[in-house]
Amino acid sequence: MASKRILMLVGDFVEDYEVMVPFQILQTVGHDVRAVCPGKKAGDKVRTAIHDFEGDQTYSEKPGHQFSLNADFDKIDTKDFDALVIPGGRAPEYLRLNPRVLEIVREMMTAKKPVAAICHGPQILVAAGVLAQRTCAAYPAVNPDITVAGGHPADISIDGAITDGNLVTAPAWPAHPAWMAQFLKLLGSRIEP
Prior knowledge:
Blueprint: E1 5-9, E2 14-15, H1 16-28, E3 32-36, E4 45-52, E5 60-68, E6 83-86, H2 91-95, H3 99-110, E7 115-118, H4 122-128, E8 135-136, H5 143-148, E9 152-153, E10 162-164, E11 167-170, H6 176-187
Parallel strand pairs: 1-3, 1-6, 2-4, 6-7, 7-11, 8-9
Antiparallel strand pairs: 4-5, 10-11
Helix pairs in contact: 3-4
């Protein structure tokens, strides 16, 4: 398997598991993952939040960890990357306001490179205008946005994932095994037992 260069778009209050776990999984199988945040450089940190499902009407939020960035946002050229990962949490809510973030997403989708988004990450896909006629999973509160953007919300369990062409999406971190397995397949990754 050839190592792929993967770009990860993050921001403050990204969901802890949705940034840490994919970052580590992708590195474990030999991929070069570059995590960036608008306005920050390699060595800077973003604060994460831990979202949990504890029986309330929505998820609860607790302080997470400090996640270290390893690339400069301002130096990103999508031609240098083979794939894109968009974690969820609260970060996508404001990252989608950044014109360069939206441009990055459009460039990756237009080039048909593998893109993985989870939970609230599809808010960025909606704002980038790339979901027309696409099936997309997200945290259920994002489903109306997907519909308004011309997409089709996936009707899957919280631990499921769905692939539509070059796009792999999932509702929340309980879907990591399915989400990452489908993304790794798009990347052409092979994991030997």
